[in-house]
Amino acid sequence: MHGQPQQPAFAWPAYAVAAPEPQFALEMQQAAVQPEFGQVAAEQDDQVRPAVSTSARRRMRRQRAADRKADTQASAPASEPPSPPSPSSSASCDATGHAGYAELAKALEEGGEAREAALDQLRGSVVQLTFDQQGCRLVQTAIQVADQTAVAELLAELRFHVQSAIASPHGNYVVQTIITALPTAMSNFVVQELLG
Known about the structure:
63% of the residues lie in helices and 0% in strands. By secondary structure, the chain is an all-alpha fold. The chain has a domain at 87-195. The radius of gyration is 36 Å and the shape is elongated. The N and C termini lie far apart (96 Å).
């Protein structure tokens, strides 16, 4: 033991030992927590804030986006698509009512003069029926069973209403039937309206 230097009993590695914090860092943290008397709100915002969790930031972003969306919808009601007409605004629909829809559907499927009479009742009210829960089924049945000239007359009423029909919970089924059941030459107006 005479020629060898003594080793310390145990020493922590330098990276494991926390460096002592300078006094000014501690004072800055206290100042951030306790703003000085007379500070304005803008100066308080510039100070260091406690960390916000990722989920809290996400919630705040979603809230800001919802607020912006509500503001834009409230300030621009004229830019919305035209609302679908109510089914009660048609004279031929008023005569039949929802109870008459089953009779019209049966007449459409029977064929002959009954079908022609049912198609006559549908003419002039196709747009209103397209946006109605039971009426959309009538229009779909008429598209599927009627001849092409009668269908062309019915579809002429739907022109310029395709985009609002697609957005409708009932009208979108009518648009699907037009695309799937009719030849491309007859359903081409749907694509043209969607393209603008």
